[in-house]
Amino acid sequence: MARRLLWASLGLAPATMVVDYAFDVDDVVLFVLAALALIPLAWLIGEATDQAAHHTGPGIGGFLNATFGNAPELIISLFAVSDGLFDVVRGSLTGSVVGNLLLVLGFSMLLGPTKPIDRQSGLTSIALVFVAVLLFLVVAIPGWEGDRERHSLQVLSIPVSVALLLLYVYVTRMQLKRHRALSVAAAEDIGWNFRVSMVVLGVATAATAIIAEILVNTIEAFAERAHLSDFFVAAVIVAIVGNAAEHGGAVVVARRGRITLATEIALSSSAQVAVFLIPAVTILSWAINPLTLAFRQVEIAVMGGSAILAAVLLARGTASWWRGAVLITGYACAVLVFYKAVGR
Questions:
Q1: 8-state DSSP, 289
Q2: Buried b (16+ CB within 10 A) or exposed e, 231-258
Q3: For residue 10, which phi and psi values (nearest 5 degrees)?
Q4: What residue spans define the domains of the chain?
């Protein structure tokens, strides 16, 4: 019944697009429609990733979900950069890293079985996030005084971004090679074939990007009525919306007992945002409106703290419901810190 409802609700995406382009409706109504439309799209990305993982193994499956799932965030960030909303961009990307490490991983463990996971792969992803945070300090510390968008910091952000991208390429290559060696093909192929899974992933991701853009365009009206700061809305609401695919994908596969794939989705996505998406947006922004990596103290502290908490809980390489509960509690604390540190 639930699957039929999700399949039927996929029609919300084209309906939201039609309402956006053909009718003059209140922005808050459009915001709600877009948010609802993202739920079945996220489920579909999770379904397609689960099917693809039957052919690739959980490691590569998690990488695929992270890659397709982060596409909307890239588009959202570039639109915000073009409007000069630099704090919104940095806030949403910070919230994405933290949300994947704490919220997505937490719900995966809470809803999944208690069993061992790929400890090496998970800790590698967390280590990448921590290294990224350390490199962000190169630009962030001088940015804590004076104009955070000044030219010297824009220039300094380039070598840091290039270093992160090179690190991402190297580690991803090693990780995929390892996962390919560990992958064991299923004895019987009873699901979608790999090509169908990839086509569905592509279409669902494209639709998610369009709906996410609609939601971002209406989120300012929502924030104004909710009396929240732009930074808080970006770090929490936009980040959760941008991570809808990872949320859906991780929850779907975790509930099916495939906790290794679920944790790979959350951790791969967090690492990919930190060492690929953030530097990629920074470099691409030079063609639009240069962005700096001058993160606030609160952003650096929460990203680093989230990586440490996730590493401690995954040190033994086991997923369990109580670890998930601790991670979700950690996310609630991060949201409170964002709210108190920046205000309304």
A1: S
A2: bbbbbbbbbbbbbbbbbbbbbbbbbeeb
A3: -60, -20
A4: 2-181+195-342
> Per the confidence metrics, is the pTM higher than 0.85?
no
Q: How far, in Å, are 41, 103, 180, 254 from residue 247 at the CA level?
A: 11, 8, 25, 10
* Per-position pLDDT tens, the chain of length 344: 556 777 788 899 999 999 988 888 888 889 889 888 887 887 787 777 767 766 666 556 656 666 666 777 788 888 888 888 898 899 999 999 999 999 999 999 998 888 888 888 889 999 999 999 999 999 999 999 989 999 999 999 999 999 999 998 888 878 766 655 555 444 445 567 878 888 888 888 888 888 877 887 887 788 888 788 888 888 888 888 777 666 666 777 788 888 888 888 889 889 999 999 999 999 999 999 999 999 999 999 999 999 999 999 999 899 999 999 999 999 999 999 998 876 54
Side chain identity at residue 147, one-letter code: D
CATH 3.90.78.10 fits 2-181+195-342, yes or no: no
Q: Which two tokens stand for residue 162?
A: 């290039």
Dihedral (CA of 251, 91, 306, 131) sign? positive
- 110 vs 247: CA distance, rounded Å: 13
Cβ pair 89, 149 in contact under 8 A: no
